[in-house]
Write a sequence for this structure.
């Protein structure tokens, strides 16, 4: 090929690329148009010309974000029709429309998915529109806005069918709210309750999955034993947006929620002879993290009775993912003030780990049952557990890799995959980490442990504690999953210096190592047995493929 021919071909490719770019350009306009207004409009229509089809991409469908002159924000849900997206402010919103100053209306990045005439998919880019509002100076008022409890329950997945009556443990209760980036207030009792036939139990609400447009929380309960209708109760005002978390006189918090669901596969409620709802309020709250544990307070509605010879076992497990507890010590039942009972541990729990005390059914009962064993109420079986996390000497975590919400394609072999930077890296002797994956767009979001190591002393060249992928193969991270990293930093004596967790997203296109080659693919497992099947259909695990150790993941 001579030089002139090369120039001609390059020019042809350039013209083709420019034509494709011109073809796949969208023109976005908004109505009412940006300009000067007395009050900000409460409805907007985006018109998108160019793509053959448009569709919402963001979960919950919130294409527009409004920002007031004082910094208040509000998401607007969009409805797609043809090439337009109609967005409307909620009738219950307290977002100010009459502040004097400049409002910003943001068409959020990748809120809308485009399909072009040639079938090519793409997404919108972030675009800002500005509106100058004369207003009434609403943003300068010192009067607090009334808190509106308008964060609605979007959906729940109780995961109570079928029941596992042997394990006495249900799947994690997933609770979704239709607003993103919600937080649980640190100064409130974030407990939720499930009540039903012969059942009433309370546990703590925990964050599970925080997204831009929705937030998922989780709660753990023991199995109800009887068929029937049960009610999940979430008190008003235990979680809210950032504005409310900082000052409860502003912003938005959750409304009270009463969600009903049905339990099947258990006992017939007609078999109930004695009520099993004499369950106490527990302090420390079940499921919380504590620095140590020496006694537990049980507060009953009325006077409790129990067998003076009762001895409760205290279980302990160092690995939170372990299925069984080892015996640790015992707890004595002692009388407290009024209707309080104390479970006093014979030995103080100070080692890091999860501690559990089981209250068998009928450990406590009320006055009616004391008078007549065929009546009254007893406690149902309860599993009380806490995470003990003693902090001996603190160091501050300044950053971590991957960053929160980062997209990561893989952990390359032989390279640091998780890095924790602190303000005193020299004090850190060990790094304990666990990486758990969750499927995106899944109601159950069943966790799968990808990595779990309790003693890693490796550090980066800069001295930061890190986990290095020494498995011998790259570990791909699927774009259909997000990953939660739980870490602890320990000193040379095994004392916890700091701990925490963060999340990031996978960015590997298929989530499985695809083996595509024109030559024959020879596969062995790690025991040296040859496997005659398509490599892409292999179960997750390590294999020797064409002489190379390869990790296959789902």
């Amino acid at each position: 090929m001579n030089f002139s021919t090369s120039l001609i071909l390059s020019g042809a490719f350039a013209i083709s690329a420019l034509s494709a770019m011109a073809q796949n350009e969208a023109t976005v306009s908004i109505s009412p148009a940006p300009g000067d207004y007395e009050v900000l409009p409460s409805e907007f229509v985006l018109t998108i010309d160019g793509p053959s089809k448009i569709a919402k991409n963001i979960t919950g469908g919130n294409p527009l974000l409004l920002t007031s002159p004082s910094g208040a924000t509000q998401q607007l849900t969009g409805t797609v029709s043809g090439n337009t997206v109609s967005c409307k402010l909620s009738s219950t919103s307290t977002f100010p429309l009459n502040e004097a100053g400049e409002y910003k209306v943001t068409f959020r990045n990748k809120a809308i998915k485009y399909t072009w005439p040639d079938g090519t998919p793409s997404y919108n880019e972030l675009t800002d529109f500005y509106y100058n509002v004369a207003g009434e100076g609403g943003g300068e008022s010192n009067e607090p806005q009334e808190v509106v409890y308008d964060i609605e329950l979007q959906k729940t997945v109780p995961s109570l069918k079928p029941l596992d009556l042997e394990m006495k443990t249900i799947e994690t209760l997933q609770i979704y709210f239709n607003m993103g980036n919600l937080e649980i207030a640190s100064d409130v009792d974030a407990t939720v309750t499930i009540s039903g036939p012969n059942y009433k139990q309370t546990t703590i609400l925990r964050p599970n999955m925080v997204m831009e447009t929705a937030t998922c929380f989780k709660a753990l309960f023991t199995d109800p034993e009887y068929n029937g209708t049960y009610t999940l109760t979430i008190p008003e005002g235990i979680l809210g947006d950032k504005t409310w978390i900082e000052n409860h006189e502003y912003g938005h918090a959750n409304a009270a929620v009463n969600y009903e669901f049905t339990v099947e596969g258990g006992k017939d409620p007609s078999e109930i002879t004695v009520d099993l709802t004499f369950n106490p309020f527990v302090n420390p709250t079940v499921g919380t993290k504590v620095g140590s544990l020496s006694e537990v307070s049980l507060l009953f509605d009325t006077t409790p009775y129990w067998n003076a010879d009762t001895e409760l076992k205290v279980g302990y497990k160092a690995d939170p993912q372990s299925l069984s507890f080892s015996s640790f010590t015992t707890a004595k039942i002692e009388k407290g003030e009024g209707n309080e009972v104390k479970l006093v541990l014979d030995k103080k729990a100070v080692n890091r780990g999860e501690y559990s005390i089981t209250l068998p059914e009928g450990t406590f009962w009320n006055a009616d049952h004391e008078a007549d064993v065929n009546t009254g109420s007893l406690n149902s079986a309860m599993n009380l557990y806490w995470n003990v996390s003693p902090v001996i000497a603190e160091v501050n975590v300044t950053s971590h890799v991957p960053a929160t919400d980062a997209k990561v394609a893989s952990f390359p072999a032989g390279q640091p995959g998780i890095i924790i930077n602190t303000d005193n890296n020299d004090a850190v002797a060990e790094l304990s980490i666990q990486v758990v994956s969750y499927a995106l767009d899944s109601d159950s979001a069943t966790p799968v442990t990808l990595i779990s190591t309790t003693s890693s002393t490796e550090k980066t060249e800069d001295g930061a504690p890190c986990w290095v992928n020494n498995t011998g193969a790259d570990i791909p991270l699927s774009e259909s999953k997000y990953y939660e990293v739980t870490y602890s930093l320990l000193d040379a004596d095994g004392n916890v210096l700091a701990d925490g967790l963060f999340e990031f997203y996978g960015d590997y296109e298929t989530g499985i190592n695809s083996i595509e080659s024109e030559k024959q693919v020879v596969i062995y497992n790690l025991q040296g047995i040859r496997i005659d099947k398509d490599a892409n259909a292999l179960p997750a695990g390590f294999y020797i493929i064409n002489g190379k150790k390869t990790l296959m993941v789902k």
Notes: The chain is about 5% helix and 45% strand. Confidence is low (pLDDT under 50) at residues 1-22, 137-145, 159-165, 510-519.
